[in-house]
Amino acid sequence: MNPVLELKNIVPLQKFAIFSNPINWKIKPNEHWAIIGSNGSGKNLLIDILLSKYGLKTGEIYCKDEYGNNIHIRKCIKFVAFHDIYSLADLKNSYYQQRWNTGLEEDIPTVKDILSKEPDQSWIQHLVTAFKIEDLNVKKINLLSSGELRKFLIVKSLSSKPKFLIMDNPFIGLDSYSRKVLRNVLENLTTIGNLQIILLVSDINDIPEVITHILPVKNKTILPEMSYSEFTNDQSFQMNLFKSSIFQNKEQITINKNDEYINAIIFKNVTIKYGSRTILKNLNWIVKKGEKWALLGPNGSGKSTLLSLVAGDNPQAYANDITLFDKKRGTGESIWDIKKHIGYVSPEMHLYYQKNVSCKEIIGSGFFDTIGLYKKCNEKQNETVLEWMKIFGISHLKNISFLNVSTGEQRLILLARVFVKNPSLIILDEPLHGLDMENKKQIKKLIEAYCDKNKALIYVTHYKDEIPDIVKKEIVLIKNEV
Q1: Cα separation, 26 vs 33, whole angstroms
Q2: pLDDT tens, 218-231?
Q3: Domain boundary residue, one of 241, 275, 291
Q4: The domain containing residue 352 runs over which residues?
Q5: Predicted model pTM
């Protein structure tokens, strides 16, 4: 069969985008591919080249319909990634805390506002039903949880019935039920309208059975293609494909801070509402100094809202009985008094933290709890930043713009930002989001090494096997319940 999509002898003009060999890749009818490799291997770069984001020094890209006619590449392909929310609303000019300030979001559209503009409403309704997101219609898109946002973006991308749907790590951020739903939807979509699927994945567990072919990528080198069964059965090849640079020597991690407090968090009958929607109801919770907690629950159960109360981002904290580090909220403390004790990373922070500054500066902003670096680090702080970059195996990225590194590398940078100021409370919301298989293992070990008896930890995940062994307590949210 003739290829439907082909990259032939591709060499980009930009030096940083050049692979070790000219890119050659053919996709034939009825084939569904997974591009797999470690963080920074070149997966996203390959897709950027396919989408014609860079000029070509040599080579051509073809996309053909069922009659053999050429189709413009941008009409042929839809690409969905977590940060695509920027194309749906003017969030680049907003700020992270705005998500929790309802009076500042009048111009932000709801899910229904956006989907109602699509011409084929019967198709949209079919997709909404298939993904079970009917209850999201009235939500503003900046209030969607990471899992809700992912499902919405997939529905939006399928609205034009593209020939190819490319998805960047579609399963991350989804609870177990939603992952099952997505696998079923992908299976069904392959039988509709000759749609072919390409997934970018960093973990073999995220490759659904609908995938027929694997394209491994390592160090900007495209390795020989493999069938699904060939790849999944070759554990030696998998181990060679994923090698972590994260420093594993526990002696490298220095812990020299011991804040004086008894309880990091006390919630008494905390209730959070947005209009008629109740997010949290009569929540009581105490996190003592040094305790390690898992915060669990399905997408939309209120986990992100709960964390916004702890991190000082949600103004509804003042209407509730909340005590942080033995100080009751609303007794004269500033948001910075709260944040100085906390190291925090979340998918939502990653979403808003799209700054065109160096990776070193992004990590340094952790000293000041800002989204962007507005103060200069002193010499000692700069040394600390470089030490943590070495621990995370990202020293080579220090002078590169945050926007020019892969999504997985961005996550490592934001994780280093968490630890740089040696916080008393560490909040890790889906910290392994987008990391490759080996980096997940090493980050888990690093967290266990860092969180000593004096540090409190709140760990959020949809994957119980990712929870560090030091976590001994859990709180589970189920919409309006605890």
Answers
A1: 11
A2: 999 999 999 999 99
A3: 241
A4: 250-476
A5: 0.84
